[in-house]
Design a protein that fits this description.
The protein has about 450 residues and is of the alpha/beta class. It folds into three domains: about 210 residues, Rossmann fold (3-Layer(aba) Sandwich), CATH 3.40.50; about 60 residues; about 80 residues, Orthogonal Bundle (Arc Repressor Mutant, subunit A), CATH 1.10.10.10. It contains 19 helices and eight strands. The strands form two sheets. It has a five-stranded parallel sheet with strand order 2-3-4-1-5, sandwiched between helices. Strands 6-8-7 form a three-stranded antiparallel sheet. It is globular, with a radius of gyration of 28 Å. The two termini are about 45 Å apart. It binds adenosine-5'-triphosphate and magnesium ion (MG). The site of magnesium ion (MG) has 5 residues, from helix 2.
Length: about 450
């Protein structure tokens, strides 16, 4: 029996629940004759940005648009030129898929487009696009505009509706004024200028990334706020969560038998957070399978399940932190249940007043270091939040696990280290009796 749930970055879920409004909005955009709006998809880690993007791609292709996109790694986006080359590479890749189809024949559209393309530019090869880019005088944005404009007219003649430029992890695009590199501004300016030109094939920009991408966009150009419709990925409603869990499970019951109170417990455990829906869904099915098809509510989740959760979602970032950062994170995680999501250096320094370990300037430095490690991000001036939802609970679990290990050793004094005599005549060191306190382990041997 195959487990239908798919926890993992960018893994398409069996049911994409609760995103109907976003899908509908995008479909409407595609049907407009003039592109007036672009999309910005933001949300915390694991909220389903990548899988939504993948779903929008299918819609765009079905509506006759060309989808050009990628996941922006840090290196691809550092400079304007590198971003432009990334786009040309993705453009050639997508166009070669559309314009050069299966070996046994091309669609009329693609054949026509290829004939058109033979004029002077073959848009299906990176070399041709790059040559056009390099031969155009001006800044990277002028060069990119010229290539995209030319490709657009090829697409129009081929009766394709337009071009979607879609980039995931777009927070990596932030401008770097200190290095004189403005990749985000370059992209936004290029698209905005093409969208204003008459007679150019519609082009839509879809960016997706962590919440800080919004600030990066606003910082890029004053008008960007008006260029984008923001889709903020929130957790799913209780009803959508139940649907995301129940629909994939239904065909497996019977032979599996999940009692209603256990099902409700899993819905609540996930809290509507998409990654957790897939994670607990998968663990539930695995647990049922291992247990002969049925589980009692109290048997789930086992401690192993919670360990796997922390390891999958959190461990990589946690393992990069220092002891001092962990003490600081513990303070943040302990700041009370009814707290707002955001926190500031001053608030955390005030919390540490008892121990006096962190003053507000140290707290500031630690917050910046934790931002670099990807555990938190800056929400607005001077305020921060966790990038992974439910980080607080995970931090406290991690610290508890570490403390349990420590205290399991704390009651034992280390065994004596034998010291070799300095000279053959020297008397052997007196034998001292080392007292071992038992921590209960010896009981196993009785
Ligand atoms: N609407 C949804 N319904 C059910 N499951 C979903 C939904 N959206 C996402 N998921 C699941 O959540 C997990 C995370 O999705 P995804 O990788 O798209 O998140 P993300 O926001 O791109 O995360 P990151 O910021 O780490 O890239 C995947 O396992 C995916 O199958
Ligand atoms: Mg993603």
């Amino acid at each position: 029996m195959e487990n239908p749930f798919r926890p993992g970055a960018g893994h398409r879920p069996p049911v994409l629940a609760g995103r109907g409004r976003e899908q509908e909005h995008f479909r409407r955009l595609l049907r407009e004759d003039f592109a007036t709006e672009n999309l910005l998809i933001t949300g915390l880690r694991g909220f389903g940005k990548t899988v939504l993007l993948d779903d929008l791609k299918r819609t765009a292709l079905a509506e006759g648009w060309v989808w050009v996109g990628n996941d922006l790694s840090e290196s691809a986006s550092l400079s304007e030129d590198r971003l432009a080359l990334r786009i040309l590479t993705d453009l050639a890749q997508s166009l070669s898929e559309i314009l050069v189809q299966g070996a046994d024949g091309q669609t009329a559209t693609s054949k026509h487009a290829q004939d058109e393309a033979k004029d002077d530019l073959d848009p299906t090869t990176f070399e041709a696009l790059k040559t056009k880019y390099e031969r155009t005088p001006g800044l990277p944005s002028d060069k990119l505009k010229s290539v995209l404009g030319r490709v657009g007219s090829i697409l129009t003649r081929a009766k394709l509706r337009g071009l979607v430029l879609a980039y995931d992890e777009a927070q990596c695009l932030s401008d770097h004024a200190q290095r004189d590199e403005f990749p985000m501004s370059m992209l936004v300016e290029t698209v905005s200028s093409l969208q204003k030109r008459d007679g150019v094939t519609p082009i839509l920009l879809v960016l997706s990334g962590l919440p800080q991408v919004f600030n990066a966009l606003i910082a890029a150009r004053t008008y960007t706020e008006r260029m984008f419709h923001v889709m903020q990925m929130e957790r799913l409603s209780r009803q959508d969560t139940a649907q995301a869990l129940f629909s994939p499970m239904k065909p497996l019951m019977p032979p599996l038998n999940c009692p209603p109170d256990l099902f409700e417990k899993v819905v609540d455990l996930s809290g509507g957070y998409p990654y957790l829906i897939q994670f607990f869904g998968k663990e539930l099915i695995d647990g049922l399978l291992k247990n002969g098809g049925i589980l009692h509510k109290d048997q789930f989740p086992s401690p192993d399940v919670m360990d796997r959760l922390d390891a999958g979602l959190f461990a990589a970032r946690w393992n990069k932190t220092t002891d001092k950062q962990r003490r600081f994170l513990k303070l943040i995680a302990n700041r009370g249940t009814n707290r707002p999501n955001e926190f500031s250096a001053i608030e955390i320094a005030a919390l540490s007043n008892g121990s006096g370990e962190f003053d507000s300037s140290q707290a500031n430095q630690l917050l910046l270091a934790l931002c670099e490690r990807g555990l938190i991000y800056r929400t607005r001036h001077g305020r921060y939040a966790f990038t992974v939802p439910m980080s607080e609970a995970m931090i406290l679990r991690r610290i508890q696990v570490e403390q349990d290990v420590e205290s399991s050793w704390a009651t034992i004094s280390p065994p004596p280290i034998p010291i070799a005599p300095l000279t053959p005549e020297a008397p052997p060191p007196p034998k001292t009796k080392q007292k071992h306190k038992s921590n209960g382990l010896l009981g196993w041997f009785n």
